[in-house]
Specification:
It is a single chain. The longest helix is centred in the middle third of the chain and has 26 residues. The chain folds into 2 domains: 172 residues, GAF domain (Beta-Lactamase); 51 residues, Orthogonal Bundle (Arc Repressor Mutant, subunit A), CATH 1.10.10. Helix content is 52%, strand content 16%. The chain has a 5-stranded antiparallel beta sheet with strand order 2-1-5-4-3. The chain has 10 helices and 5 strands. A hairpin with a 2-residue loop joins strand 4 and strand 5.
């Protein structure tokens, strides 16, 4: 089956058929949660998530189907490597159907960590239109294996729909109004950027090095990137000059 046989209308119908669960956020964030659940059922993977990106790379998760998928996203934020990063930077899907093979050379810190979570394969599809890059659709599988042609086509269609919603959300956010349910994600991004700027000034380094220092501290202390950024912004933490 070609991608033409799986239209955006079909994907929208799959998402529309998903029931709203207790705990689902309001507005667009709730739509993203239902999109992830619809993709999970349609693609037969173990987990689905949507992350938003900035020019620097992935920044935060806005929806996911399970704890492990959120943990994989957080590990990629912290370590600065993985399929989500590659998909964002290359503007092409990044597919790792078997984490037991040479992918460890591509992502030496990430692969052992996610395999420890029971993940056997990872796939990331960029959310983009033209030059606009807004996020990635992430898929996790607890068993190694490739996506079928039909599965790949469906994943691309889900990615297209997520792109439309995120672009709409960013347009509203640019007018000073956060999309419904996205307040936490936007706050996470703003706090991380604020912490990056503070470290840059404190250590007299550039923005890229400041982020590297924050990531290094998060990895060494086994804290999330968001937690470390929060400690920096509230001045509970000041990174030492020799932190790498």
């Amino acid at each position: 089956m070609s991608r033409a046989a799986t239209s955006a209308v079909d994907v929208r119908s799959l998402v529309a058929a998903e029931e709203t669960l207790d705990g689902d956020p309001e507005g667009m964030a709730g739509q993203m949660s239902r999109l992830c659940r619809a993709a999970l059922e349609a693609l037969g993977v173990s987990g689905v998530g949507v992350v938003v990106t900035s020019d620097e790379g992935p920044t935060t998760s806005v929806a996911s189907t399970d704890v492990v998928t959120r943990q994989v996203a957080e590990l990629q934020f912290t370590l600065g490597e993985g399929p989500t990063w590659d998909a964002h930077l290359t503007r092409r899907p990044s597919l790792a159907p078997d984490l037991r093979d040479g992918t460890a050379r591509r992502w030496p810190a990430l692969v052992p960590a996610v395999r420890g979570l029971g993940v056997g394969a990872l796939f990331a599809f960029p959310l983009q239109v033209g030059q606009a890059r807004v996020g990635c659709l992430d898929l996790c599988s607890n068993r190694p294996g490739t996506l079928s042609r039909v599965g790949t086509a469906l994943a691309l269609d889900f990615a297209d729909l997520a792109t439309v919603w995120l672009l709409d959300g960013q347009q509203r956010a640019s007018r000073g109004v956060a999309p419904d349910g996205f307040d936490g994600a936007l706050h996470h991004r703003a706090r991380l950027h604020q912490a990056q700027g503070m470290v840059m000034v404190q250590l007299d380094v550039d923005l890229g090095e400041a982020m590297s220092r924050i990531r290094a501290h998060a990895y060494a202390t086994e804290h999330s990137l968001d937690a470390v950024a929060g400690d920096i912004v509230t001045r509970r933490l000041r990174l030492a000059e020799d932190v790498r």
